[in-house]
Amino acid sequence: MKILITGGAGYIGSTICSALEDKGHEIIIIDNLSSNGSKKKSCQNFYQNDISNIKALNQIESEHKNIDAVIHCAAKIFVPESVSNPSIYYEENVTKTLTLLNWMKKADISNIIFSSTASLYRSAEDQVVTENSELQPSSPYAKTKLSMEFILEDFCNAYKMKCISLRYFNPIGADPKMRSGPNFSNSTHLLGKLIQAYESEDKKFTITGNNWNTKDGTGIRDYVHVWDLAEAHLKALERINSITSTLSPFIPINIGSGTGLTVKEMVSIFEEVVGIELNTKIMEPRPGDVAGNFADITNAKNLLDWEPRMSIEQGIADAIKWYRKKSI
Which CATH architecture has domain 184-221+258-299+308-327? Predict the structure, then answer.
C-alpha cells in the first residue's frame, strides 16, 4: 500500500514508518519537524512542511498518485503546555486537521487511521475502560483529540470516508532496531523522567500526586511498547475496509496492554531493570493530571487480531538504550 503519514518524523510516527517499511509498504511523510523528529529527514518521500499548507499537500497528491490511506499522527501533545496555552492546541490539532481532511476529500482519499488518546476517558472507579466508557477529557490537549474524533466521525458519515481511531494508552520504549525513539529533551512522561533521574547524579525522582483513588494512591497508567503500537497501525490498515461499514464508518479502538500499573509499581519495575533504587519524593499533581485508567483491549483482539507482545521490562530497556544512543 501507499501510505501518507502526518507527523511521520516524530516518536510514534517514525516507528510506524519503520513497521510499514519492514512490510514493504510505500510511505510518504509530511512533518514540520516542530517536535525535533527523530528519523525521516532523509527519507526520499519526506516533505518538511505543515499539514495546513495546501500547496504542499497538493504537491504530494501530484507526485504520489493513488494514496491508499492516511495515518494522522501530527499533533501537539504536551498536557501542561495545553493548559497554559490552549489556543495553539486548538489551532494546531483541530483547525489543521480540518484542513487535512478537506484536502483528503478533494483528493479522493477515503481511509484514515487516527492517532487518538486514552485521555479522552473519564477516570473509572475500577480504572478499566472500554470504547463505550464515558468520555470526559480533562485537559485542552485531550479535548482537542476528542474534537478531532467528532470531526472525523462527521466526515465519515457525510463523505463516505472510513476511520479507525486508535486510542493510545501510554507508549514506551523505542524501535527494537534503534531506528527511532522518544525525544527525552522535554519529556513530560513517566518513563522519560525515570530515565533522566537514573542518569542523574542525585537519582531524584518526583511522584506527582499520591491521593488518587488507586491501590496505592499514585496514578495508574497502561504502558504499551511503541513497536506493538506500530503493529496495531498495520493491522488497522489491513482491516479498515472489512471492519467499517456504511452504518459504522468510524470505529474507535483501545490500544494498550490491558493491564494497569501505578506510578509506584512502575518505579519498582524500573528499579529492578536498572538494578538501583531511586531517591523518590512526593509532590502535588501537575495541571491536567488525572488518576488514570487502563484499557480493555477486547475490541483490538477481536477486530484487529492484535494484542501486545512486548513486555514492560523490554520497553524500559529499549528506552534506556535509545537514550544512551542519543546522548553519545
Answer: Alpha-Beta Complex (3.90)
φ/ψ of residue 277, rounded to 5: -105, 130
For the stretch 264-273, pLDDT in tens is: 999 999 999 9
> Could you say which of 11, 89, 141, 168 is catalytic?
141
**Residue type at 35 in one-letter notation:** S
Tell how far CA 206 is from the center of its chain. 24
> Over the stretch 69-127, which tens digit does the pLDDT of each residue have?
999 999 999 888 999 999 999 999 999 999 999 999 999 999 999 999 999 998 777 78
Range 2-173+223-256: architecture per CATH: 3-Layer(aba) Sandwich (3.40)
Extents of the domains making up the chain: 2-173+223-256, 184-221+258-299+308-327
The structure's pTM equals 0.92
Length of the chain: 328
Catalytic status, residue 141: yes
* Distances in whole angstroms, Cα of residue 123 to Cα of each of 89, 138, 172: 23, 10, 21
